[in-house]
Amino acid sequence: MSSLTSALGPAQLSSEDLLAFQEAYYRDPVEFMQSVLGNWFTSPLSWVHRGWLAILLRRTDFLPKYGELDKIISHFVYKENPWDTAEKGKPLFQLEADGNLSLTVTKNTEIMMPRGIGKTTCFNGAIIFMAIYEVRHFVLLIGETATHASQQLQNIRREFEENSRLKAIYGNLKGTGTWNNDQIELANGFVLAATGRGGQVRGRNVNGHRPDLIALDDVEDEESVATAEQRQKTLEWFMSSVTPAIAELDPASGIFLSGTLLHNEALLVQVGRDPTFTTVVLGVLDNEGQPVFPSYMSLEKLEAKKAFYSRQGKLPHFYLEFFNRLVSEDTMKLNPAFVQREVLLRPLALALCHDPAISKKKKSDSATFAVVGLYPAGRFQVEDVWGAIGLTPQEARDKLFELHRKWHGYAAEVPLYCGIETVAYQEALYDLCTEKMAKEDYWFQLEKLKFNQEKGARILGQLEPRYKARVVHHRREFGELESQMMEFPAGHDDYLDVVAMCFSLLQPLYAAAAEKEVDREAAEGSYYKSEAGATGGL
Fold this sequence. Notes:
The protein is built from 19 helices and 18 strands. The protein has an eight-stranded mixed sheet, with helices on both faces. Strands 17-16-13-14-15-18 form a six-stranded mixed sheet, sandwiched between helices. The protein has a two-stranded antiparallel ribbon with strand order 1-2. It is elongated.
């Protein structure tokens, strides 16, 4: 379709050709956007964008053509509280017996997506589609500022003025009414107006029509959520100006919010929890832990971003920006802010633990290793944490020996206790370790760790009081460990679990450590020896 359109000029298209194109593009909004607006959509629309478009247009008939229906069904899910990880939620899309999808939404909709994923471009493309095919009569576009909203309107206006493919198929749609940076009126009567947050909304009426769609796109910014007063001002404007402006007598009218979470008490959160809104929260990763839009954010880029935010002590902002996830430091059981960053020297003892995991599934827990040091005055330091999914027992055994040699060599005069959780199949890993000791004549005591207490309670019991007492130091930034601290108990806890095992292994020494005073003079130099024999940190 797109190649045929590009090959033909306006004079070569018969009335039958024009009608065929118009009908085909109406049946398939995705093809319309990728062909007619090809300068905007240089890559195929992903399943996220197609699901987003279906909700905005309230249509699902074009979705089966592109597949990945299972992804759309499983990710576009409604919850009474969209940020309650324990709530199962209800899919908005249902696969019917005939292979088509049905859609259930309320009058008003909110979809939260990370910035940079293309939602504004999709918004603008959908508005052009709605304008041409008269899906809506009057769309009011509201942005962060009047300038921002006006820029989007100008981008749309420019397509009607300069897009040769659009004009070849649909003709000159510019009307005789208003045509400026704040409002355009098409020849078919469609009206698009733009304003910013806090702008005049109530009372808008053009040719007897009130807005039948109020589209708010990234309407908040960092300044508007900075204080409780500013957040309340935005909410009052939304309730007193935006909500009453919709064409209530039109049963198809509605409000559509799309944005990225900037604060735990932002407008998107206040509105998103209200039952009059169908709210969907999406992040940069799908349910399988894979990027929803790889060209925007790969796993490697995301890990680098997380490490950067972690080093700056801004992990809550990372989860807001890339996952639209609420993170409240007040309610965290294991708050990364409790971590002590000063590096401790001269430990009294070290513990090395391993928590095996056999699954190779992407969402599974990792096989994890941790080293924790016990220091004078009852202080601790997480020295090392490492994990990987899908390690074989032989690979896990070799990693354990590698870490034991490393830490025994760095602190040869310090006792190094070693433990491995042994449940069911994990007993075999213990045997593999003892066989390797005999083969290499490298012996150390390896304890079998078995726990009767539920894992979450054990993690909390070992870690919470010590982190809150601010006696736990981290030798360096451990991004995954600290992110699991923030998410606990909702997310993965494999890194937390293996660190808690180390604390358990060191527990018999706590009393003696608490009685020992810190040797300040000795602590000024590094206790650890590098592999080259020089002193210094790792």
